[in-house]
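Lab notebook, bench 4. Still working through the backlog of constructs that have no structural model yet. Next entry is a single chain of 296 residues. Request: give me the structure tokens for it.
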Amino acid sequence: MSDHSEFQSFAAPAKINLFLHVTGRRADGYHELQTVFRLLDFHDTLRIRPTADGRIRRVSGNAQVAEDDDLVVRAARLLQQHTRCTLGAEIGVEKRIPMGGGLGGGSSDAATTLLALNHLWQLGLSREELQALGIQLGADVPVFIFGKNAWAEGIGEKLQAIALQPRHYLVITPAVHVSTAEIFTSKELTRDTNPTTIAAFSREAFSGQLFNGSFHNDLESAVFRHYPAVAACMTWLSSFAPARMSGSGASVFAEFATLDEAKAAYDALPGEIAGTRVSGFTASSLEQHPLYGMTF
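Model written out:
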């Protein structure tokens, strides 16, 4: 392979958790979860160029994260080591998904790296093999490789495709960093929500009662107590439509029937809520990952 290949662009979409229940805690300290991951058409963009020299280099990205700690670099090196591939890559990341928002940005970037390099390096690994590598990088990585909206259990790695009606969203993120570790060890966090079923979720989702029924995000109470800015964003957003926190925050989202409704709410978004800077974006749901059809 020549080192004069062109850079190619690959999307890394955001996700939201339509609900998140903590149903128990394992002996190894990880929590047992039930959730539904929904993919959005708001995405980071990775630009990747395969090289012949075997080196993995980040040519652009978040300068606040050391290159060796960057999930895209770690993903590329993991794939390289697993397959004993002698090729390298230059990787640039254009970030749009807020970091630390519970929107899966870093995990999605890692998944797109695995998918893209499996294709560019012509490795031929299956989706299942890539998911097994992905879980070594983070619990949310496999769902982006799975490539469909998914019902998830375990620590989030047991995935089953789920049909969802098209919806549109306003997602807002306060300028605070929520410590996931702090929230999962918080005394406010309940860890005994009764397990539920896909059938029960589908009934509430298709009847329009998802935000008013028995499904919720168990992490919200702990996050709201420790991070009042997130609670304030939820209050503001709830004045437009039913709202929920994604993952462990800090992002919260509201669901709308049309994109115009979501954009109207976005137009009303102030620069600050309760004295904390906020940012936001509108997005529509995806049925599958932009790279789902990529050849393996």
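Notes after review: The chain has nine helices and eleven strands. The CA atoms of residues 96 and 290 lie 16 Å apart. Flag for follow-up if needed.
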